[in-house]
Write a structure and sequence with these properties.
The chain has 11 helices and 35 strands. The chain has 628 residues and is α+β, with helices and mostly antiparallel strands. The protein folds into 4 domains: 204 residues, no CATH class; 159 residues, Jelly Rolls; 88 residues, Leucine-rich repeat, LRR (right-handed beta-alpha superhelix); 127 residues, no CATH class. Strands 1, 2, 3, 7, 10, 13, 14, 15, 19, 22 and 24 form an 11-stranded mixed sheet that branches. The chain is elongated, with a radius of gyration of 33 Å. Bound molecules: 2-acetamido-2-deoxy-beta-D-glucopyranose (10 copies). The site of one 2-acetamido-2-deoxy-beta-D-glucopyranose has 5 residues, from loops.
């Protein structure tokens, strides 16, 4: 009874953890990094549930900012953070996304002297999946350690799982305070495609009431609309009427954003604002995308009209005049990134026949992120992550297994082809302190050519699926509690105490030597029937004492000699020169070329436990032969 209870409790524990790392019903994921002492809380301002980052990352150290930087007016999200002193790349894994859907990613950083060193990191890099997102340079938000940095991107995610990674570029220890993910309607921001993401530079709401940031629930996507007001430059306008079209089309904006606007102080004046190009090391020529939001908030009488042009750096940006309708949203935007400039000056000027000055409600500015890097083939990547999770492999197993090449996971090699995603081709986890049974995820690595799990503490039986792998697999050696099928498990358990004493001797596990025979003699005998076929080797019978005399009755002495001899795995390694040359493979295993000490060429067949009976007896025998 007791063990069953344990199972139940463990199971429940897992599902709770699982639940907290699932998106909410809107698909929102809101992570308060470094949150400790509680799993989650409901944010006062947005009523959204924020969860601890425990289910999303397995590295880093949680911290609170120092007490002097606690500000009652600031969102709770920035009070704690997670710092990543170890490893070049550390990641958050976001699951249960919808592949091909557009998402808004937002990361927040507030140093707040969490480490007591009074020295925020100079910079580090941020990636979405395998694509560069931005440099996080705290001094862009002011050198004051009280400043909050916030970065946002809109990207189409290629898989149902995305990692957000912090990469240490030598500019100090990366850290993160908050990470938020919001699904968007596909029709929004048509400039964002599978190849191109949008990196937000600015999102401003003119004449915001009470200078407040507008976000969820006013914005169903929880974008942050920062106030932009300047009573010395602009006349503020607002309405309480409903503005049409706020929630349709390619550029939705919250009603509250569209209900306020500015016009110039002078009827003949223009509206001017701008931004500087921010350099990104990985993208020297990003180009900008801008989206302007307009709605007429005044009832225009009779022959009054409001029409205007938008100029970028003193040149007409769009050659059609904008004429907003009363209480109806319209947008002006560029479809493709503008050519690179050092500074962007926007000037909105009334046309000659306009009786009223220009108006603007809000704007957004983005630079572009190329999202054309392709990560490890997704089944390989998921399998590798499952293996990592199962064995708690730390090493540098963070982020994408194969990409970039310079950050390929330790103990693993990949193949890179130009037209297809990288594949995992070899894994050497020998002597890695692995415990527990053998993960069936290894079998999902369909391009695997080499797998070495020797010298670990692996137990249980070998998954059937592993025998389907085309790879050379080595699980022998100091995996004392592995067994073949249920019966031999019991056998192994019974003899465990004795075995333990002799553990120096490698045990045969996944592969059982089924037979060894003299290839030359054999093929001579069979050539007439099965000329040149690989099946020559495959017909070698299991080395089973009852069967042997009958199956090869009358075979010549040299062959019998081989057949009656038992080989240890080590010996077979020598014979086959480390299982170097594969002669062929059947449904149940590979056949290797080899030479006996006397130079006789032999075919060695390695067979998985799943294929036949008679093996477990053989295995037991081999074990005892080894031990004695
Ligand atoms: C941060 O503060 C909270 C509340 O005071 C506490 O429960 C938590 O353990 C602290 N976290 C760390 C990393 O010290
Ligand atoms: C961070 O930004 C500041 C101000 O733009 C710049 O002077 C500094 O070189 C940047 N640091 C790094 C490491 O990029
Ligand atoms: C916002 O401003 C209005 C006046 O414009 C005022 O009546 C209201 O109380 C303010 N709200 C807050 C939350 O400050
Ligand atoms: C507005 O116009 C007046 C007179 O035409 C001028 O003196 C003043 O400087 C203008 N103000 C602005 C902000 O352009
Ligand atoms: C508007 O039209 C009226 C006559 O309908 C005219 O008296 C007035 O001057 C016009 N105003 C402007 C600004 O054109
Ligand atoms: C005002 O001028 C613009 C071009 O400058 C033109 O497109 C528009 O039709 C004109 N409007 C009127 C009412 O004449
Ligand atoms: C596999 O890993 C073991 C232990 O880390 C090491 O001794 C061995 O050389 C590695 N073999 C290969 C082929 O990388
Ligand atoms: C990966 O490739 C390198 C270089 O060819 C080799 O030294 C290493 O042993 C390989 N590792 C594995 C796990 O196969
Ligand atoms: C597996 O790795 C061990 C070293 O840890 C090595 O002795 C053994 O030869 C390897 N097996 C194969 C098949 O490469
Ligand atoms: C294997 O497991 C045993 C007990 O579970 C432990 O004492 C031993 O250190 C482990 N060995 C390795 C290499 O992890």
């Amino acid at each position: 009874m007791a063990p069953r209870w344990w199972l139940l409790i463990l199971f429940l524990g897992c599902s709770v953890l699982q639940a907290s790392s699932q998106p909410n019903s809107r698909g929102f994921i809101s992570i308060d990094c470094g949150l400790m002492g509680e799993e989650s809380y409901v944010d006062d301002e947005t009523n959204l549930l924020y969860v601890s980052d425990a289910g999303f990352t397995d590295t880093g150290t949680p911290y609170n900012i120092s007490a002097e930087y606690f500000r009652p007016w600031r969102s709770r999200n920035v009070r704690s953070l997670r710092s990543f002193p170890d490893g070049a790349r550390n990641c958050y894994t976001l699951r249960s996304l919808v592949s091909g859907l557009k998402y808004l990613f937002r990361a927040t950083f507030l140093y707040g002297n969490y480490d007591g060193l009074n020295k925020p990191p100079a910079s580090f890099d941020l990636y979405i999946g395998v694509n560069f997102w931005t440099v996080v340079n705290m001094s862009w938000w002011g050198s004051d350690q009280d400043n909050k940095a916030e970065v946002e991107a809109i990207v189409v995610v290629p898989h149902d799982l995305v990692q957000v990674c912090l990469v240490n570029t030598g500019g100090g220890t990366p850290f993160i305070s908050g990470l938020e993910l919001r699904p968007l309607k596909m029709s929004l921001y048509p400039q964002a495609t599978a190849e191109l993401g949008l990196f937000m530079r600015s999102r401003r709401n003119f004449a915001a009431i009470n200078e407040t940031i507008i976000r969820f629930p006013d914005d169903p996507y929880d974008r942050l609309w920062y106030p932009r007001s300047d009573a010395t430059m602009w006349t503020e306008r607002s309405t309480t009427e409903r503005v049409d079209g706020f929630d349709s089309g390619s550029f939705e904006a919250p009603m509250a954003v569209l209900q306020t606007a500015i016009t110039p102080l002078n009827a003949s004046g223009s509206i001017n604002f701008g931004w500087d190009t921010e350099p990104q090391p990985n993208n020297p020529s990003p180009g900008y995308l801008a989206v302007f939001y307009f709605a007429e908030l005044q009832v225009l009488d009779g022959n009054a009209s409001r029409q205007f042009y938008i100029n970028l750096n003193d040149e007409l940006w769009h050659n059609r005049a904008v004429k907003p309708e009363y209480l109806s949203r319209i947008n002006l935007y560029n479809e493709f990134p503008s050519p690179r400039q050092n500074h962007y000056d926007i000037s909105i000027k009334a046309t000659a026949n306009s009786t009223l000055p220009p108006i603007i409600n809000a704007y957004e500015v983005f630079s572009v992120i190329t999202t054309t890097n392709v990560g490890t083939e997704s089944q390989d990547a998921s399998a590798a992550m499952a293996i990592k999770a199962k064995y708690k492999v730390h090493k540098n197993w963070m982020g994408d297994p194969c990409f970039p090449k310079t950050m390929t996971w330790d103990s693993l090699n990949c193949s890179y082809a130009t037209a297809s995603p990288p594949r995992i081709t070899s894994i050497n986890l020998s002597s890695s302190g692995l415990n527990g049974d053998i993960s069936s995820s290894f079998a999902n690595l369909k391009a695997l050519e080499y797998l070495n799990l020797s010298n670990n503490n692996l137990t249980g039986s070998i998954p059937d699926s592993l025998s389907q792998l085309q790879s050379l697999t080595d699980i022998h050696g100091n995996n004392p509690n592995l067994c073949i099928g249920d019966n031999s498990c019991q056998l192994a358990a019974k003899r465990k105490s004795k075995l333990a004493i002799y553990i120096v001797v490698p045990l045969l596990v996944i592969v059982v030597i089924v037979s060894v025979a003299a290839l030359v003699l054999f093929s001579l005998r069979r050539r007439k029937q099965q000329q040149g076929s690989m099946n020559n080797m495959a017909t070698i019978k299991p080395q089973n004492e009852e069967e042997m005399p009958t199956s090869h009755g009358g075979a010549n002495d040299s062959l019998r000699l081989v057949e009656n001899r038992r080989f240890t795995y080590k010996e077979l390694e020598v014979i086959t020169n480390g299982f170097e040359r594969v002669l062929g493979k059947g449904g149940f295993g590979r056949v290797y070329d080899g030479f006996l000490e006397d130079g006789t060429q032999v075919a060695v067949k390695l067979r998985s436990h799943s294929s036949n009976q008679g093996i477990k007896e053989f295995l037991t025998e081999v074990q005892w032969n080894h031990i004695l």
